[in-house]
Each structure stands twice: as structure tokens, then as C-alpha cells.
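Appendix B, record 7
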Amino acid sequence: MRKWLNRVGHSLFLGLALAALFCTTGWGQENAELTGTVTDPSGAVVANAAVTATNNGTGEVRQANTNGAGLYVFPDLKIGNYTLKVAGRGFQVYVKSGIVMNAAATVREDVTLAVGQATTTVNVQADALSLQTETNEVSNLITGQQITELATNGRSITSLITMDTGTSGTLPEFNGITAQGSSSTISFNGMRTGHNDFLVDGGEIYDRGSGGKLGVMPSVDAVAEFQTLASNYSPDYGIASGGTTLVVLRSGTNSYHGGLWEFDRNDDFDAVNWFTKEAAAQSGTPPAIPELRLNIYGGDFGGKAFIPGIYPKEKSHTYFFVTEEWRRFIEGSPASFTNAPLASEIPTTADETSGFAYVPPVGLPETPAAGVCASGQSAPCVPATTDPAKLALYTADSLTIGESFSNAPGGKIPGNLLDPNAILFMGTGAIPPSNVTGPNGQPQVIASPKQPTYVREDVVRIDHDISPKLHLMGHWIHDRMSQTFFPNQNWGDGDSYTTAGDVFGNPSWGSVIKLTQTISPSLLNETSLNVNGNYIKISAAGIYAQPAGWTQTGYFPAANNIDNRMPGVHMGAPFSTTWSIGYWPWANAFLNYQPRDDVSWTKGRHAFKFGFAYMRDDKNQQQQADTEGDYDFGTDFSGDSYVNFLLGDSDSFTQLESLSMFHWINNTYSFYGMDNWRITHRLTLNLGIRYDALPHVYNKENMTSNFVPGDYSASNTATFATSGALCIPAGSPSTLPAGCTAASPGLSTVNGNTFYVNGIAIAGVNGFPRGIVKNDYWTWQPRLGFAYDLFGNGRTVLRGG
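C-alpha cells (predicted):
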């Protein structure tokens, strides 16, 4: 606990230092606005009336005065329950309580003052429900009470986002308990699912370097409410062309409150589904339910910082809210039937002496390539070869090319033809022996290994009233996650067996620090710095390491193959399966930071807002290919891919030289201006414009290129050797491939290596853009909308934009 407190303290200190460094930037976090017009009984506006808005939870007071148009505005209020007080000379004091301010809401509270003594107070209770009468935006609010009371599978807030009108998604029934492991494929009004944005207290938690993923997944018990902006939202929100989801964390109040919870799911509570029963009946095995253990437990506590006799003093107050949650999800992978050899079909080192008796598996038809086996012979057959050493072995073993191995002496594959590394590979259990018989009699293996996921989440929010005119807010969210997969994720290879897996580690964080400065009753400035990021570290698990005695080598140094992994094996008929550990271990890092400044200014009937923001994304990611290499075994050679594997006859071998790390950078520059012009007390125009400069992402080392047709020269057409190799000098001293009389035209040296670059433009060279395409900066985004209170009672509003 002490380490945790130290980490939080250091993070907040760093945030404060960075906020001071970027003191000209910021963002409106909860961005609620209370506005209205003060009039007398005749309808004439009342200027210079004193207006206060008091947060009933914390006692925080905001003060303003009505201007010459009788208008008051309180921008960027925290969410909560408020009391409005209006006092004007010659009028009774007006007090309205129970005004609810939600995230990004603009609430209008017009006031009519009664003539009388200032010692008389008129108390009014706000309506429980009110319409948005000041803006044309289309949005949907989910309150904290709804979040905790609406049942969601896995307690994920993403499941609640789709409740908004015009919102659809392809979210799974159970969306996981992690940010990276969950789906956020939500479409607002038909827009692309990757064009959304997600903000917590105004700070982005969107992993832009991961194809659109949440960076953190806040506990629903840490969330006060969230708002989805689906359409026509104001220009202080942007960058995303789809929908924007605004999440607000719970904050402390004058009273102390907290709670403990645990949510439990267990397969002991579940029945066996029909498909599992059918599969069990066909295989003759007892029906089984995959293991499922889901436990989400934690606690929270919040209130007002208080040290007797020391703090608080005068008008400075500090509020805190802390949430700790643990999530534990253990799942057996769904029982899957995978083709596998019989135990008797897995050779041992003894078979290198005695020979290996192989019978093609029942129920798995072989489809050897044409011409592999001689007429009337069935696979596996003796492979054709021109290798003198192999031909000598055939002679010694009394073998004939194209003849079935079943006709060989003893009906066995001679042991001297077996590849020692293939025998060692099978001895590891990477491809396990079958343990069930499939519906057609084919040997199969069924397994359901545990796949545990563990998450610990720390959330802390602190609100500090430095003075009545200065308010400082900061939060820190940290998710520490470990998720195990069997078979491994193996992006691209598609592993068939549950013997090789991986552990997905993903510590992620989000932080916000904001200073709100009330410069005058009509001028407010907000300054903030928002930082979020994550690391991904995927480690190999299960059976993957080269066993003792392994001699297979690839094209590149063994040191490039981290953890000495065995190569991948892709087999065709009869098994048609793959074993591969992929490119794990693998690393990836993402960092996003956004300084921003917003100024709110009330002038006459106009509520202006202006702002600037800068966002930088850094993405560091290793390549995604296998440095241990991958073998493909088809039905050439012997006509049986498994026998080809045992003989060491592969169709192809591919291998990445080294798992290099590439560094990508993206910058976004944003400006906006807006005017909510209250033409009358019933009609408001929403005018605004936003500009986002969106230059393309670029590689930090300029290690990218693009083909430009206009740069291609026919006179520099490449020349090749008879072997098909490009005529490029190599080695020291340099030599040309056999059959080349001269080096090919169109060659160039890039970073010390020679490439054919005819028509290829290199990033950052000769004025070619670092993002390898031309940037389009004509990205102005105008806003025009209106909201009209048809009857002047706030109950029927016509809006458009």
C-alpha cells in the first residue's frame, strides 16, 4: 500500500509540474454550463444582479453578475446538485435549489425577480427533468445510478453506450474485463467505428496506435456518469468524426462515503448447453462445461481531506475519491476437436535405428499432388530426389521412387531417412497425441486449458479549491493486466493446438490535471494536461523451446531467435493443422499527451469560447513476423504432409532476420471558436468553427517509402540472374550473383544497404514527405445550429444544425 501511495503521489507531483510547464494550455473536463436571463416582472432585463451557483456536495461557490443584457453564465461547472441564488437592488432574493448539472450539459435557468426587500427570499425547487434548450446537440446521458443498476455482462460501460438513439455496435455478449481485450466497435449514426473518441474527465483514453481501443477501462463504481455526444456537438469537441463519450469520475464531497462489493460468476451455476451435449455424444465422452470463474471485487472511499487543527484553513479545501478494484477471470478454452496423430504415429529416437511404421490415419483422406506416387501406389510414397546422398540411402534401403512406403522392407520408413529435429520436435509434445476419436473415426485431441486474466485497477481523483477563484483537479487511473491465451494469439498464423500459448501483459494509465481560473465574473480560463499510454509485453508460454540436441538452424544468427523457439510447422493433408509460437516475446508502447487551453467569455447576449489544443502520439512497436522461421509442409514429395515433416522435406521456409523496433509519431494541432448567441430568451444560435491540422503519421527514422509512378524510369529496368536473383553486388569483396554481367540499373544505397529503388521515394529524402503521402490541411469544420423554445416554458424545443 505504501508503494502504491508513493506512486500516486509522484504521478500527481509530475502532473503538477507539467501543468506549470504548459500553463498556456487546457481542456474543459466536465464542461457543464449553467446560464439564464434575469428579468423583472415586466420582462425588462436586470443588469448587474449578483448571481451565485453553489455546489451542494462540496460547498464550492461560483459568483457572477448579469451583464447589460441580463445574462449570466457559469461555464465549466462540475457535475452535481446546485443551488442558484440571484440578488438585485430593489428585488427580493431568489433561490432555486435542486438544479442538476450533468457532463457537457448546458442548463438554462431564467429568473424573474419579484419587487421587494432584499431581506425577503423566494425559494424555488428545480424540476426533476429538464430539456436542453440552449444547444442543438444530440446526446445521451447515463447517470451513476443507471450504471450501477443496469445489468451488463462483465460490468463494462461500453455495453451501456449503445443505449443511445442512432447508436449500434457489434459488441460481444461478454466484452471482457480489460481495455485492450475488449471491443469498442460502436457506430454513431452510421459513422465508422474507428472514428470515435473516449474521454475521462476530459482526458483521452483512446489508444490511437492500436486500431481504436480503450486505453483503460474504469470500474463502473468509479464512474459518476457519462455522456455520449452523437451529433451536432459544439466545436470544443472534435478530432473524432464519429461519436464522443465523456466519462466523469466520482469525486469527494463534504460527507464521507464508501463501499465494498464483489460480483461472482461460476460455471457451477451453469447448465450444459445443447451443442456441448451433442459433441460429447458423438465422441463418446462425458459432457463437460469449460471452467468459468469471474470475480470482480473492490472498494471505494471519498470525502473531504481533514486534519484536526491543521487543515483545512480559511477557504482552501481538498476533496478526494479513491477506488480499488480487482478482476479475476479464469476460463477454460472452449472444448475443440483438432486432428492429431495417434500415439503410435509419434516417432522416437529408437525409430532412427529400427525404422518407423506409419499407417495413414483413418477418416483423414490424403490428397497427394499429381505424379508423387507411382501408378497403383498409395501415399506415403518414396519422394523423388536428385540428391546423390539421398539416392544412396534409397539404394541401401532397397527403396524405389514413387513406391509406397508400405512396400518397403518391414513396411516401415527407414530410420536413416527420418529428420532428427522432427523426432525431437514431436518428443516435446508440441503436437500432442490424439485422445478422442472423431465422428468419422479420425484421431483428434480435445483440451480445455485454463486461460486466466487478472486486472488490478487504481483510481484516484483529487479536487482542490486553492481559493474561490482557483480550482485544481487531477486524476490517475492505472490498470495492471495479465491475460493468458491457449492456443496463443499468434496474430496471422492461426495456431491449432493448445500446447503453445502466451501471456499478454498490458499496464496502462490515464491522467488529467486541470487548473480553472475565474479571472472575472465574465471571464474564465481552463488549463490542463492530459496524458495516457500503455505498454504491451507478450511472453511465450507452454511448449516452445528447442529441446536438447536440436540442430536445425535458419538463415540468420541464432541470437536473433529470442528464447530459442522451435520453428513453426504448417501441415496440409491429412491433418491440415498448424503449430507455431508466433513472434512472441513481443513489445509495443503507446504514449499520448494533450495540453490545451480554453477561454470562456460572456459579452452581452454572446457566450464566447475559444481554445487551442496540441496532441502528440508516440507509438513504438516491434515487427510482426517470426525470427525462428516457419516451415510449410504440403502434399508434394511423399504425398503426406506429416511424413514430409518427419523426413524434413518442406515446401518453403520463411524467416525474419530480426525483430526490429520502429518508432512512429503523429501530431495534431487544433483551434476552435464558438458563440452561443442568445438572440431572445427563447432562441439561441450556436455558431462555431473548428480547425484540426492532421499531418500523417511518420516514422522517426524515416524508414518508410512509397512507389511514385512518375519517378519510374524504363531505362532503369531491373536485371536478374538466371537463378532469379536481382543483380546486386554482395559480400566482401563484393560479387555479383551467377549469370550477372553487371549490376542492375536503378540501385541505390539506403542506410548502408543496397536496394532497387527505381520509382521508390524515400521518406524525408529530396523533399518527399515524411508521412509518404501529401498532407491535406484544408480541414475546416464549421458549426451552425439553433435551439428554439417553442412555448417559452422549456418543455418543447425545436433544434437543428
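Remarks on this record: The longest helix spans residues 2-21. The radius of gyration is 34 Å.
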